[in-house]
């Protein structure tokens, strides 16, 4: 009996491995549908439950089974700092919600935030090998390829292929419609997700990816063109940050000064070929009469700063800013609209709704994820090192875009954070694996 009881966990270890392998399927589907949610909405239009909900249910169920089944110690990836920071942030948001004025809106937001965080936690359990980490990156890149192609087609034809939501189909600038690609999010948010795909492809390409160099080059070209045609200034700035970080990698090479000069010349030469809408949007940054949204963005910041002053420790509560935005106290601010709006700066938004304590936890989580991805670039496994570099580039690019967008509950943000943290955990596990 004793010999059987000792052998049983070892015999059942392959069961956990097989379940972890199967759990990769809904996780990959989630990574794809995160950017192609409009496709998922079309598929589930006549079903009582959406494809996203089905995917999440399958993912959580499979992850629970992985946790319940015994496995060999060699498969465990240790390091819980990232998990603790995620848990601390969520529970602080719950605490902040208990002190908020608009609890119904806050509860809806907490549910949305929890739905965004849970797949990231599942990622930390399921993605236990560099090969699976790389597969996740390729899933995001593949989804971005499809979305970029849709942007190019819709920009050319003026129609809509899969998007159906009002946010995705009515957005425009100076009478020119903007495409959200394969998403039902607004075009700016869709462009941020596409930015992650392009930055990941750039990172893999410059990390030494040889086998799929041509497909990566093709997607970078298509994705960059789609970002430019999409007209999202925040995404274009994020792409610029990704390119700047890649160029900085060659700072010790003799040709680095020529690289800088060549980049500047190429940028100037490309200006005549850029879409007029994009040029107008950047030119409008100094012309409030041309772009009325600039008044609104300044008002976001002023209202946020005022709310922090009144509740600096725990903030106004998650999901509460839009309801404060429409109060009479701010009705005369320039550009303010009569319906709720989110604060379009992720960092100030976190400080406003979570307070300074919540903001510090959020900032620590972002810094830890970026540091984890950076550490993974020195991994002994070339595949893990390449994934770490790609994740560090993509996360840095998204963090730049977060200065202009409300991304605290963006699903791709939490998925990217989890992948970056897991890359660092896999790097740390290299020295402890038998």
UniProtKB/TrEMBL annotation:
Primary location group: membrane
GO cellular component, one term: membrane
UniProt KW Phosphoprotein keyword: no
Keywords: Membrane, Transmembrane, Transmembrane helix
InterPro entries registered for this protein in UniProt: O-antigen_ligase-rel_domated, WaaL-like
Subcellular location: Membrane
Keyword Ion transport among UniProt keywords: no
Domain O-antigen ligase-related residue range list: 219-363
Superkingdom, natural source: Bacteria
Transmembrane segments: 21-39, 45-69, 81-100, 106-128, 135-153, 189-207, 219-248, 255-274, 354-371, 383-406
Membrane topology category: Multi-pass membrane protein
The name this protein goes by in its record: MFS family permease
Species this chain originates from: Sphingomonas xinjiangensis
Biological classification of the source: Bacteria, Pseudomonadati, Pseudomonadota, Alphaproteobacteria, Sphingomonadales
């Amino acid at each position: 009996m004793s010999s059987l009881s000792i052998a049983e966990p070892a015999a059942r270890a392959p069961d956990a491995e097989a379940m972890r392998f199967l759990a990769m399927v809904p996780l990959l589907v989630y990574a794809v549908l995160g950017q192609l949610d409009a496709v998922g909405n079309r598929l589930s239009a006549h079903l009582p439950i959406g494809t996203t909900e089905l995917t999440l249910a399958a993912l959580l169920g499979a992850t629970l089974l992985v946790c319940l089944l015994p496995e060999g110690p060699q498969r465990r990836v240790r390091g819980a700092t990232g998990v603790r920071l995620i848990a601390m942030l969520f529970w602080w948001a719950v605490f902040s919600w208990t002190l908020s004025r608009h609890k119904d809106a806050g509860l809806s937001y907490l549910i949305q935030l929890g739905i965004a965080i849970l797949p990231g936690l599942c990622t930390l359990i399921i993605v236990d090998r560099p090969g699976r980490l790389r597969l996740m990156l390729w899933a995001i890149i593949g989804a971005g390829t499809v979305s970029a192609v849709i942007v190019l087609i819709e920009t050319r034809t003026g129609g809509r292929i899969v998007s159906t939501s009002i946010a995705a189909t009515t957005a425009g600038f100076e009478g020119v419609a903007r495409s959200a690609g394969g998403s039902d999010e607004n075009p700016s948010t869709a462009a941020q997700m596409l930015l992650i795909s392009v930055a990941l492809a750039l990172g893999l390409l410059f990390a030494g990816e040889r086998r799929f160099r041509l497909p990566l080059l093709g997607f970078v070209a298509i994705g960059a063109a789609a970002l430019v045609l999409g007209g999202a200034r925040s995404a274009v700035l994020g792409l610029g940050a990704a390119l700047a970080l890649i160029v900085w990698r060659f700072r010790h090479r003799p040709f680095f000064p020529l690289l800088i000069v060549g980049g500047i010349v190429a940028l100037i030469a490309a200006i005549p070929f850029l879409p007029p809408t994009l040029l107008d949007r950047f030119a409008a940054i100094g012309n409030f009469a041309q772009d009325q949204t600039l008044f609104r963005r300044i008002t976001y910041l002023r209202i946020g700063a005022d709310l922090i002053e009144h509740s600096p420790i725990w903030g106004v509560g998650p999901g509460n800013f839009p309801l404060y935005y429409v109060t009479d106290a701010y009705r005369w601010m320039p550009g303010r609209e009569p319906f709720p709006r989110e604060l379009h700066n992720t960092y100030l938004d976190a400080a406003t709704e979570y307070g300074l304590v919540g903001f510090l936890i959020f900032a620590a989580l972002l810094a830890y994820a970026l540091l984890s991805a950076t550490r993974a670039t020195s991994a002994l496994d070339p595949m893990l090192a390449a994934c770490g570099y790609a994740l560090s580039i993509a996360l840095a690019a998204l963090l730049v875009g977060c200065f202009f967008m409300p991304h605290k509950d963006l699903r791709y943000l939490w998925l990217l954070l989890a992948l970056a943290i897991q890359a660092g955990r896999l790097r740390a596990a290299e020295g402890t694996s038998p």
